[in-house]
Each structure stands twice: as C-alpha cells, then as structure tokens.
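input
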Amino acid sequence: MKIYSRILSFLRPYTGVILLSLVASLFYVVFNSASVWFTASLINTIFEEEPVAAEVQPPTPSSLSLNDRLKYETKQLIYRDDPVDTLKVLCIVILGIFILKNLFYYAQGLGMGYVNLKVIQDARDRLYEKFNVLSMSFYDKQRAGNLSSVVINDVNAMNNSISNSFSKLLVEPINILFMITMLFVISWRLTLMAIIILPLSAVLITKIGQSLRRKSTRTYRQIAEVMSLLQEMLHNIRIVKAFASEDYENRRFQKATDKHFYLSFRHKKLSVLSSPLNEILGVAIGVVLLWYGGVQVLKHQTLTSQDFISFILYLFMLLQPLKSMSGVNNMIQTGVAAAERIFHILNTEPEIKEAEHPMEIREFRENIHYQDVYFKYEDEWVLKDINLTISKGEVVAFVGPSGAGKSTIVDLVPRFYDVDQGTVTIDGTNVKELSLQSLRHLLGIVTQETILFNDSILNNIAYGLEDVDRGAVEEASRLANAYDFILDLPRGFQTNIGERGLKLSGGQRQRLSIARALLKNPPILILDEATSALDTESEQLVQSAIDKLMKDRTTLVIAHRLSTIIDADKIVVLERGKIVEQGDHHTLLEKNGAYRRLYDLQFKSHISSVEDL
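output
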C-alpha cells in the first residue's frame, strides 16, 4: 500500500482542483442518468398508441413506488394535451440535459487534465533535482539512457496510470452506483440477476492485473536498454563510422528492440484481454435479462413497456463504465511498475552529505592536507595510506601509470567522493564539515574532456555565475586566448556551440573551458591534462592560457605527459594507490626511481617517434 500512497502524494498539492472535478463529475453523472431516463420516455412517447395526458390530481404518495413516482413527475414535466407539444417539450428537455451533461464532463476533464500535466512536471522536476544532489558514485553505476528513460518513459507511464485510472475512479463508480440504483428502482428482481457479472469480473481483473505488473516492469527495463544503446551510439558516432561498425550497431540495436517488442506484445495481449472478456460476460447477462424481461412485458406481468425500455437502456449504459473499470486495475499495475523505478531513484540517498550545521569557507589561506587517507571503490582499495600537504600557491602534479589513483586523489578535495579512512582538510578544517557549495566555489576545474553546454559562448563562459558583467566575460576570453576566434564567429559571443561544443575545434573548446575557470577566479585550480588531446598549434595557445590561469593560484595537475609538469613545485608519484615518491623534477630524476622510469619511458618513446620521421 505504501507505493500507492506515494503515487497519490503527487496529487495532494492539487486537492482543490480535484474536488472541483469531483463536483463536476457528480453533476455529470446526475445528468447522464437523467438523459437515459428521458430517452426512455421519448421512445415510449413515440411508440405509445394513446399518450396519456398528465393527471390533474396526483395519486396518494403512499400508493406509489419510487419508480412510479418518478414516472409521474416526468409526465407532469413533459406531457401536454397535444402529443406534438409533448414531443417538443421532451426534445427540448433532452437537448438541455445533454448540453449540461457534456459541459460538466468538459469541466471535469479540464480539471483533471491540468492535474495530469502538473504531475508530469512535478515528477520530472523532482527527478532532475535528485540527479543534481546524488553523488558521483551513483553515476558510476548507472547508464545515462536508463536515467533518461525513467524521466521520460516511466514518468509518462505513471502519469497515464494516474490520469486514466484516477479519472475513471472519480466518475465511473458514481456512474455505476447511479445506474444500479435506477435499475433497482425499476426492477429489483432483474437487477439481482444482473449483479452476477460483478464477482466474475473482479476475479478476472485481479488475476490479469497481477500479471500485467510483472510484465510492465520487464518492459520498462528493456526500453531503458534501448535508450542506452541509442545514446551510446549517438555519442560515439565518429568511432562507429571510423571502424565501419554500422552493421554491428544495427544488429545490436535491433536485438534490443526485438526483445522490447516481444515483451510489449505479451503485455498488450494480456491488457486487451480483460475488456472483451468482461463485455462478453456483460452481454451474456444482458441477453438473458432481455429475454426474461421481454417475456414479462409481453405477458403483462410485473413490467410495463416503459419500465422495460428504461431498464434495458440503463443496463447497457452500465456496461460501459463497468468495461472502463475493468481496465483500471491494469492501468494501475502498469503505473505501479513505472512508479517503482521512479521512487527507486527518489529514495536513493546521496553518499556525499553535508554536516548538520556545515561551516562556510570564504577563502583559502594555508594548505590542503591529506592525513592517513584510504579510499575504496566497491571492494577494491584505490588509495592507501596517503599523507600529503599542498601549500597555498604551490603547483603540485600527480603522475603515475593508469589506475594508480591520480584522478581519485584530486576528486577527494571537492568531495566528488569521500574518504573511507583518514581526513582531507583545507586550512585545518575537514572538508566533510564544510558546506558543499562554499567548498566548490573555491575550486576551478579544467578537464581533458572539455565539458560545454548546448548554449551560447557567453552563457558557457559565465556558467554558474549570476549577473556577470559582459566586460568581465570578454576579459576572461582574452586571457584564455579565445577572444579573437569568438569575434570571427557569425554571432560572436551569442553563437550557439552545439551539443558538447561540437561546432568548435578541440583547442577552441578547451580555451572556452579555461575562460570559464578564469571568470570564476578560484583560489584552487584542478587541471586534468588539459592539452593532451590537442594539436601542436592549439596546444601552444591553450598552454599559454593555462599559464595565465595558474598564476597566483594553488594548482593540482593530473599529468599524463611529464613534459608539461617539469616546472611544478612538487611532483607526487603514485603506484597502485600509494605515494611512492614526491619532490621536484630534478630531485626525482636524481633518485633514479619510479619517476625516472616514467620519464625515461616517455623520453625514449619521443626519440623513437622523431627517428621514425
């Protein structure tokens, strides 16, 4: 029951609109029931051989059944001395009833439509907000396509379940109650026979619904797999074409869509089964009642012709809401399967949490200190026994083979990950005691893979900052050696650079990233080999911009090419998660240890490349 309560929690902010829709639904049901009653009167009036004028004196109320009383009041309203006048009044009344009925139906649908759209918006907003607070470790284990599928497909499925089922639960039960009441009023014997259909339908609905929920869960998981493959291919389209792997990717995608089709079709076969089964049962009961009631009318027993017409009309009108209700459980179970995936994300707690009363840090004064730091990813120790001090103004480079822990040791400073043992402090304060926002405001990050947004150059440089002066943006672009190429673009700083900045060259993208860091003006800078993927000319421009960026800042450099960090104040050599050496370039070369081996390896590779030329 908890999952249903959480789904309904999306509706609570709109209780007022739902109540108004409920009132509109009540009026709709009343006028819908009246439309059936007066339609039966119309049929009876047309085929009655001698219309009876309204009686002048009403019979004694105690002598009338509720059915007869209703028929009497109807005659009082519509019957006239002239049969044509009676027909005219009846037609006007029926037209008015149908107009009012549909006006209230429109009002109910409009109110629920507003609620449905707001539920979609709220669910997506909550998921997006959750994505922004979840830790990096969450994204290490998730595929972007799966998360996108939850935001788009699962939210739609949950909302469709709410909108379709809730709308029907709002209107149809009242409709059914009114119809059954009128059936009892007309003939309680025939009505008791008709009710046989209800327990049979309930059993069918429950069994089918349970199976649908299981099948829906499998289907949503598979469409997430399809979306993941699609995003992966679009993201890596250059590699796909470079390796002529189009056929392979087509086969892989088709295999995933084939499985989705298979699961979806199994779901569809079951979901469409409940409605025809219930309708067949309903019509079978209706035919039996038609025969039984018809015999009573023909033999002039307990039913009049008008009663029988009214009963049949109400009975067949009852089948439609019963048919609608038969599919409600199927919709609910489909929605629950989607909601479980949504709430799985919303229930996920971020591993990186702020202290109950976090401290604000406004400036960096002294040092960053790692003390007895250990970090584990899943079951493997990535960092072990790290002790290191980085003083203000120092340029510290981290080198070592792939998987040595270079990126991880740097990621502990902005708390992308938290240590398992030991502490990381800034100016003597544990980073876990600092507010995340103030901590990260101290940092500027330039990565090897440039991260830009599908937006203008101006907004990319000023990302994360509010009310930024245009002159400051231009000055940052000049320092980053980006100003000239920006002015050469068709719309200058307003030029949209496309998804991930693909409209620009690698060097241009990297200079925009540096301009963004310059504009932020952080006291601590993290560089993840920002020039490794560039050509020689671009590298020179970017390296010049980086030199300006590093001036008067504490800089942590993740280095892959040792030639870029020869002038670093301190070089930290990592192997298998441990610091094996640290010192400046010349000191480490003289030690003739791990750094020397790395340096000689890269130097020899460079000499070999030159000789090959």
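quick obs: Confidence is low (pLDDT under 50) at residues 49-57, 606-613.
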